[in-house]
Each structure stands twice: as C-alpha cells, then as structure tokens.
Design a protein that fits this description.
138 residues, alpha+beta, 7 helices, 39% helix, binds adenosine-5'-diphosphate, binds magnesium ion, NDK-like_dom_sf, nucleotide metabolism, kinase, phosphoprotein
C-alpha cells in the first residue's frame, strides 16, 4: 500500500552536513520526498512532538537535543513507507543498528541518532499534520 510517513533529520546530522546523503537513502529506495522544510524547533514544539515520551527519564535530554540546532522535516511517500523508512533508519541505538542503515552510518549515540521516523500509519498522519499544511505536500 502506498503510504506517507514523517522523517526528521535531527540536529546532529544537519550539523554533520549529511542531509544530502540521508535524502539519497530515501530516494534511492523509491521513497519520494513529497514535502520538505528546514526549521528550528522551539522547546514548546519539541515537547509537543515527543509528548508520548514525557514520562520517560530521557525526555528532558531528548527535548534539549532536538532544539540544539535546525532539523529537516520531510514527508516520504511510497509503498510501505512507514516500515521501509524504519528499516532504512536502523535501530534506535546506533550501536545496535544493522550495517548500512542510516543510524549505523551517520549516528553517534542513542541521544544523537540522526533521524526520526514515524512508527505507525496513525502516528505518521499526526506527525505530518504537526509539520505540514496540505498545500505543502505535493
Ligand atoms: P525511535 O526514534 O527509534 O522511534 P523512540 O521513539 O523509542 O525511538 O525514542 C525517541 C527518541 O528518544 C530516540 O530516537 C532517541 O533519540 C531518544 N531515546 C530513546 N530511548 C532513549 C534512551 N534509552 N536514552 C536516551 N535517549 C533515548
Ligand atoms: Mg519513535
């Protein structure tokens, strides 16, 4: 099924100037960039976006990290986009991520792990709405 999912290139990867290399992973695996923007999240934005994790011990550090520099938010579209993006990303902890995945290749630690990707079709819809208006998706 053709799906849409939200991807974020996190501040560590933007800082490392690997935006292009990460986008290439998506495009070369038949995921189309149907929306894209670079932006600086506010603390309010980051807390809202990661609200599901607000009780977790790492929440404060996660928010701090996500606002430490600009991010690139994208909507990826393609066959099984949600699962395909998660496969391309690799495990949350880059040390456990399979070789050749984005996190294995570009991430340093579980905090600074290069990319975010929606974990379900439902969450993808909510996360896409968080970042993009209808007219920005084309
Ligand atoms: P994923 O990004 O792989 O979907 P989660 O949704 O579980 O992972 O967590 C969201 C983000 O919170 C992770 O990408 C990571 O940056 C951070 N995180 C998750 N678990 C930990 C942890 N144990 N310690 C520090 N940061 C964490
Ligand atoms: Mg997640």
């Amino acid at each position: 099924m053709v799906e849409q999912t939200l991807s974020i290139i996190k501040p560590d990867a933007v800082q490392k100037r690997v935006i292009g290399k990460i986008i290439d992973r998506f495009e070369s695996h038949d995921l189309k960039i149907v929306a894209i923007k670079k932006l600086q999240l506010s603390e309010y934005d980051a807390k809202a976006f990661y609200a599901v994790h607000k009780e977790r011990p790492f929440f404060g550090d996660l928010v701090k990290f996500m606002i430490s520099g600009p991010v690139v938010a994208m909507v990826l579209e393609g066959e099984d986009a949600v699962a395909k993006n998660r496969d391309l990303m690799g495990a949350t902890n880059p040390k456990e991520a399979k070789p050749g995945t984005i996190r294995a290749d570009f991430a340093e630690s579980i905090d600074a792990n290069a990319v975010h990707g929606s974990d379900s079709i439902e969450n993808a819809k909510l996360e896409i709405e968080f970042f993009f208006s209808k007219r920005e998706i084309c």
